[in-house]
Amino acid sequence: MTRIDFAFGAPDRLRMACQVVRKRFLAGQRLVVYCRDGSRLVAFDRMLWAFDDTSFVPHVLANDPLASETPVVLTAGDPQQAAQAAQPAGGDAAPLWLLNLDTECPPGFDTFERLLEIVSEDPDDKQAARQRWRVYQNAGHTPVSHDLSRQPSGD
What we know:
The chain is α/β, with parallel strands linked by helices. The protein is 33% helix and 23% strand.
């Protein structure tokens, strides 16, 4: 069953998502980042290139020819198709994690080993997260909550 983690209290959802992606990349984890909102996905893409002057997180869009060679794949489409594009050619299908930056639950989320949700202090963001939490619970999952406001700043 997919493990679902919600990180609540992010001062800036996209910046925190960049930090999470960098941390997962450095740990050798492959990720699919999902968001149907193309402008938010583009903003995240740009931020991922520039959020830290001292580190680099390789990432591409799911339809990029280098998707199978890149540890972080961004998609506004079906996350499962992005996951297939992200699998190394001829290699074993490595478990992928899914980072959801959308306001709704990603389709096919339960085919991923782990789903990460980052929630800011914005009231609309928190309300959408509560809805997603209920959807996951109703699907038989037990989401885990993490309070970012109680953790020390930094990684």
